[in-house]
Amino acid sequence: AADISSLYKEAGIFTYDPGFMSTASCNSAITYIDGEQGILRYRGYPIEQLATKASFLEVAYLLLYGELPKEPELDDFEGVITRHTMLNENLKDFFQGFHHDAHPMAILVGVVGSLSAFYHDSLSVHDERHREISAHRLIAKVPTIAAAAYKHSIGEPIMYPRNDLRYCANFLRMMFATPCDDYEPELIAEKALNLLFILHADHEQNASTSTVRLAGSSGANPFACVAAGIASLWGPAHGGANEAVLDMLLEIGDVKEVRRFMEKAKDKDDPFRLMGFGHRVYKNYDPRAKIIREVCHQVLEEVADVNNPLFELAMELEEIALNDDYFVERKLYPNVDFYSGIIYRALGIPRNMFTVMFAVARTVGWVSHWMEMMSDPGNRIGRPRQIYCGPDQRDYLPISQR
Ligand code: ACO
Question: pTM for the full model?
Answer without folding.
Answer: 0.92
